[in-house]
Amino acid sequence: MSTNGSPSTQPVVLCGPSGVGKSTLIKRLFADEPDSFGFSVSHTTRSPRQGETEGVSYHYVTREAFEKLIAEGAFLEYAQFGGNYYGTSAKAVKDVSEPDPQTGKQKRALLDIDTQGVKLIKANHAYLNPLFIFIAPPSIGDLRKRLEGRGTETEDSITKRLAMAASELGYAREGNHDVIVLNDDVDRAYKIFKSAIDGKLEGKGDELPVEEEEERQLRQ
Predict the structure, then answer these.
(1) Which of 13, 34, 107, 213 has CB atoms 3.0–4.6 Å from 38's, for a disulfide?
(2) Domains in the chain with CATH codes
């Protein structure tokens, strides 16, 4: 699963529904290996949420500025959700993997993107040769509980996110990811996630959850 070189600089593309626990796995990875990985900071046109930091959580830009970057071909991938743009620039990935001027060490870029972004990278930027990892919920019902537990989502927003989750699961069921991680237990999920990134995982990881009627209905 790893490219040649030591350490590997193969980018890691993390995909999965909103609320599935991607941020928790990313934070744990960075805590374990702060000098080995770097987060590719995306651009967005939405406003910062409480606790978010410019240049760390996202690069917050106007819609006009974002569309100018699109026209310039600056993005590896971008998408719209909830009326806002989100995108990963080629520069953001390049900045992560640039050698440290003092140590010469390179970090691996970690990208957290949606299915549309995965499709764009596969179609237009195959040269990146990333490791595609899909983080799956135990069920759509479990994901609903997680989103409701946030206390920040409206019912309409939850419905939209679940519909997107069903679509993402459908894409994952087609075998479009290198590794599947079922986040039913964060400690167990992290072990599989870390093994995959280290190139030590046998096979493709977990099985996806059994497809439920609710998932099929959400995709209609």
Answers:
(1) 107
(2) 12-219 (3.40.50.300)
